[in-house]
Amino acid sequence: MNDEMKYEAAMAQLEGIVRKMESNELDIDEIAAQLKAAQRLIKFCKDKLSKTEAELSKIQAEGE
Length: 64
Prior knowledge:
The chain has 64 residues and is an all-alpha fold. It contains two helices and no strands.
């Protein structure tokens, strides 16, 4: 996953995958590939949120 990717872009891709799965647009071969992509996107988003939370906590602690 590209570190330059924005959280919003990753979420948009993830939402697109979910939409395709919910509307049965994917065949059996595509489902496995899209599921792997979704797992990478989820990990990326979680990591990005964790880093942001740590940065905010640090900034808040410095301000006190």
